Amino acid sequence: MAGKSNKSKAKRAAQSSNTNSTEPAVQTDAPVPVPPPVAAPDNGTINAVDSVVDSAAPEANQVLPPLPKTEESESQVTNNDSQPKQGELRLYPVSVKTQSGGKMELQLNPGDSVMDIRQFLLDAPETCYYTCYELLLRSKDGETHHLEDYNEISEVADITIGGCSLEMVAALYDDRSIRAHVHRARDLLSLSTLHSSLSTTLALQYDTALNKVQIPGDKPKSDVPELECLGFMEDVPGSLRKLINSASEEIKCVENIIFSSFNPPPSHRRLVGDLIYLDVVTLEGNKYCITGTTKTFYVNSSSGNALDSRPSKSGLEAATLIGLLQKLSSKFKKAFREVMEKKASAHPFENVQSLLPPHSWLRPCPVPDHRRDAARAEEALTISYGSELIGMQRDWNEELQSCREFPHTTPQERILRDRALYKVSSDFVDAALNGAIGVISRCIPPINPTDPECLHMYVHNNIFFSFAVDADIEQLSKKRPSNNQGTDKVSSTEKVSCPEGTCDGENNEELNSSNEATVVENEQATYASANNDLKGTKLYQEADVSGLYNLAMAIIDYRGHRVVAQSVLPGILQGDKSDALLYGSVDNGKKICWNEDFHAKVLEAAKLLHIKEHSVVDASENVFKLAAPVECKGIVGSDNRHYLLDLMRVTPRDANYTGPESRFCVLRPELITSFCQAEALEKSKCKTKTDEGADIISDPSSVSVDASKDGDALTHAEENGASTSDQKTTTEKQTEDSAAVSSESSKSCDEIAFNPNVFTDFTLGGNQEEIAADEENVKKVSSYLVDLVLPKFIEDLCTLEVSPMDGQTLTEALHAHGVNVRYIGRVANGVKHLPHLWDLCLNEITIRSAKHTLKDILRDIEDHDIGAAVSHFLNCFFGNYQAAGGKASANSLHAKNQKKDQSITKKVQGKGKGKASGKKSLASYMMVDSNILWSDIQEFAKAKYDFELPELSRTTAKKISVLRNLCQKVGISVAARKYDFSATSPFETSDILDLRPVIKHSVPVCSEAKDLVEMGKVQLAEGMLSESYTFFSEAFSILQQVTGPMHREVANCCRYLAMVLYHAGDMAGAIMQQHKELIINERCLGLDHPDTAHSYGNMALFYHGLNQTELALQNMGRALLLLGLSSGPDHPDVAATFINVAMMYQDMGKMDTALRYLQEALKKNERLLGPEHIQTAVCYHALAIAFNCMGAFKLSHQHEKKTYDILVKQLGDDDSRTRDSLNWMKTFKMRELQMNAQKQKGQAANAANTQKAIDLLKAHPDLIHAFQNAAATGRSNALNSAVLGEAQPRGRGFDERAARAAAEVRKKAAAKGLLVRPQGGVPVQAMPPLSQLQNKINTGTSDSSEKCGENGEAKVQEKKESSENGKTESQGPAGLGAGLTSLDRKKQKAKK
What we know:
Blueprint: H1 2-13, H2 23-26, H3 58-63, H4 68-82, E1 92-97, E2 103-108, H5 114-123, E3 133-138, E4 144-147, H6 153-156, E5 165-170, H7 175-189, H8 198-214, H9 229-234, H10 240-243, E6 256-259, H11 267-270, E7 274-281, E8 287-293, E9 297-299, E10 317-318, H12 321-328, H13 330-345, E11 362-363, H14 374-380, H15 396-404, H16 411-440, E12 457-460, E13 463-467, H17 473-479, H18 488-502, H19 508-511, H20 519-543, E14 548-549, E15 553-558, E16 561-567, E17 581-584, H21 596-608, E18 614-617, E19 623-626, E20 633-636, E21 642-645, H22 669-688, H23 693-698, H24 700-710, H25 715-718, H26 725-751, E22 763-764, H27 768-798, H28 807-816, H29 824-830, H30 835-860, H31 866-878, H32 886-898, H33 900-910, H34 922-926, H35 930-945, H36 952-956, H37 960-970, E23 972-975, E24 992-995, E25 998-1001, H38 1007-1022, H39 1025-1043, H40 1048-1063, H41 1067-1084, H42 1090-1105, H43 1109-1127, H44 1132-1147, H45 1151-1168, H46 1174-1189, H47 1193-1211, H48 1216-1259, H49 1261-1274, H50 1278-1284, H51 1295-1311, H52 1331-1339, H53 1344-1368, H54 1381-1391
Parallel strand pairs: 1-5, 11-23, 14-21
Antiparallel strand pairs: 1-2, 3-4, 3-5, 6-7, 7-8, 8-9, 9-10, 12-13, 13-16, 15-16, 15-25, 17-20, 18-19, 18-22, 20-21, 23-24
Helix pairs in contact: 1-5, 4-39, 8-43, 12-13, 15-16, 16-39, 22-24, 22-26, 24-26, 26-51, 29-30, 30-31, 30-35, 30-37, 31-35, 37-43, 38-39, 38-40, 38-51, 39-40, 40-41, 41-42, 42-43, 42-50, 43-44, 44-45, 44-46, 45-46, 46-47, 46-53, 47-48, 48-52, 48-53, 50-53, 52-53
């Protein structure tokens, strides 16, 4: 907390100077560079591995002996680390003399600020409890420099020449710093800041178990416990408790430390330096009263009720509180050492706090006891709602705009600028979240209390808050001008002030144009306009035009209300007339303002955003040239900056939705980018290659859809800063294709522009031909969405090219393709034949419709009835609740719907005055039953999504995954217990445990790092492992500096680095990177996010590659649990994971368990995808290989025949995979004949010899264990690695893409003589002869001599085959989601 306190000082100081405003930002990566003492290994299992991160692990080399060329490429990977890369900082050692006189060393960069150094020292175990000190820098020439917090080291001395040292010199405490010191001490004694990942725990347990085995006398474990995956897949509700990680067990260091009731010090004691008194009770039971002075902490002589400030007889004192407690209590000293060791043993990332951690929809059940905690109570006494209690409040707008004005010509300058912007934006979002809670809880007074409540505006902590209202806005806005004070001129500026803050309410007048809009449409319009404004603001931020500014913005949904938070426009609250409107219109186009200087800046941004410069006519027949939507507002603030606000329609209106109620149905920016690139690509192809006309027609949709993700991937803003996996998946597919024509098409792409004001009520200027051409342009892109993008998206879903797991990933996939969620009804109709996709779309429509009803209830209900109202709603939704008076309740609900506008208006006016007309009593909601609720949901789905919800939807909604999705969308937390959805009322009031805000924001992402990742993907696809490693490492380094490690983009870099290291043969390094990705995903996306599930799956496959199968199976079990919660058990990804588990058991020789999983996977795929889907073929093939390993060659042949039949039907006879399958069939047939012949020849003798051996082994079980262990180690791990090779794990078609790239890598590497690892089509003697007897026992047959060699051969070939047959073509044994079309396309192009 001391660090936080220092940051707060910096934040306030930042307002007085532009330079200083970077400093809070510079803190952002402070926790990242962990000093050497803290840098713990990734996890317990990898202790031996840490030294080989940068080179191939010895174990990995035994498993996969690389060819000489490969070693060379690996050494290149290592050598790349020694050269500074773009964005990578060079570090220099600087010794530090600590306050206690000890010595330590820090690795620093000349660009580090003194604030960074303070943060490094806070993270180091030796100095973590020193908070009040000054830093002296002694240079080589003997000079001593006093370091100010806002200095960079390079401004004071040159540390690159060496010989520099730092000294920590104790400073005097003051009231603020001593409180920060006590706060920091409490934090250090708690483990609540340590977020340990289950993967770390599993690895440490495995390591401990291994160490125990190594102790002489212990018997090694002979058996790997079987997973209960199949069990909890059948009982997903019952497995809810398993999701929640048990909290770190607290290590008690002291009974309590509280502020004494002697505080504040009396005046005579203040004069001699007393600042604070603390009461401490140690674990030994001794009570002490401690005095904190400006210099030290000491035990005073107080006892009873009178203060005795004299030092106690012991005379103990220390410069820090923890130093004093160590002297007072031996138990404290021991426990504190344990706490520090526990924190040091954790992964460094587990100690880092994340921005906006994801909402947890599950809480422990039973609810843990709420225990007394004086420290917690003291913190809760002051209600600040995010503002600073002491000192000046932060000027968010000035900080943000100052950061934007930083120079950004060199890479290092861009990193500093991005870091500053990210830090300020993140802090703003955090403050906006807290402020919005205060606004909705009515704890913050409005600045216009005489206006109707739905038009109230609030300013708190220099943030402007307003409601996105759902009332009859026309009536209310008519009342508004009468409240304005002063002349008409003033009222016009007043109007500007409303728009600036209300964002949605700001469009009050605009909404007047459609009087026929119903209440639901009003609500939708205001919600949509807030979303659109956020997207528009983000687009202009990314365009980054010099001299054109936007406000910081966030949208908070809480308790049924939507609040828009914006930074305050300079001068707007002071009534300063210098903020006059210069551009756009405040009165719905009646009067339009225009300014040449402003227009030039807007035009520059318009070129980047594909907005056309066009003419608009106002009510006075004046014609203006605009390059933005008419209702935007261009204002010059009192700081003389040009601000552009109200950007609801930066993209044109969707021509497929033209009714008055659809005025905010605009196209997505991704679609615009996609369309422009497709058009440009088509033009360039037409010019250069007229003979490829047919190809052009088939390709633009996919190329452009993918290209859109390269450009403005705006999903982050909408879904809590999240970028999408599918987005990147599809991007990578076309990178090579689009690169070839990108240079030619970029010019023509920029020329395509759209008029955002067509299909609106505004009067357009220019001749009719021009207007018609503009309208035609918008119609063209709208039909492109319906005719090309949607069918392509549906096709990708059906081929598993895009494989969303839950509502969030489905939304992200839609957005990444440029499809609005309002088209989800069409998507649902397109995937009716695939049960998992039909259920997913159906449930998403149902949940989105139910969400609006639930928000109405939350908005209208009294605070003390929230738990009961929410549980009743869930009972009506998931159960079958029947009200006593059905007719009466139906009438009351319809009456409520009909008069909703009136009731809400009354509600918001009456909140502070009796509230009778506003708030609803709980009894009125208790009359609603399941039938009424579901009829409401069906009506809403029809109105919003044009989709008739079938009666079946009530049944499909009875799932944990639906409950999870609904809770996440509304912010509800429920108890983690088993819910019986077949009951009438599955939920009780006590099950509703929390209600949290849901936030959307526009925190910027680092474009530099995104570009590097894209370049790395291209290199990976080319087979250039070392080059791709360099790009991904640079991106990782830049993101670490800009965002810190807790960010989704950092997780993506770790995933790619793991992949590259794996292919370079460094399995251990791959596991370390994968572990990082897993920790970040758990913290940033949530414990049960599909990406987290896939991270566990990848970890399992890597561990299996190192022959740590027990650990692999534990991780795989966790992956299956998470998949079951997010998607339910019926999903192709679950089936694919079952195949992976089967492979692991197969390699362990547990054929019966492997067969169970394979058969379960086959059932799932046949049910979900159909008996003739390629995924089903993959299952048949895997079963054929399993039967082959058991010697059941007849069954192998039968299953392979089914595989072959499916492949012939889907791919044709000529496809390489079909031919491979035919070869397998011949092999199995031949083995069957050989076995039969052998049986006839030597059956009797063989049987006798075998029986003797079996009897011998049965008599000596320890021999069996020895043979099993020998078999496990002797078996070539190349077999295991084949699972990881081309069958690289993937998430929702994302890692699958990399796997294809890996397959390409192998082909190209083979051509260069760089084969990374053997891929066998050649029979291999994989198992040592020793294991043949064990094999006989397991299978119970006697024909082992033939079987054993074939067993290993089958595995190598099978995994090669299944990776080619499943992975590259669709979903192989080691992956999740796939598709064939793009690969076929690539192959055709390669041939051309």
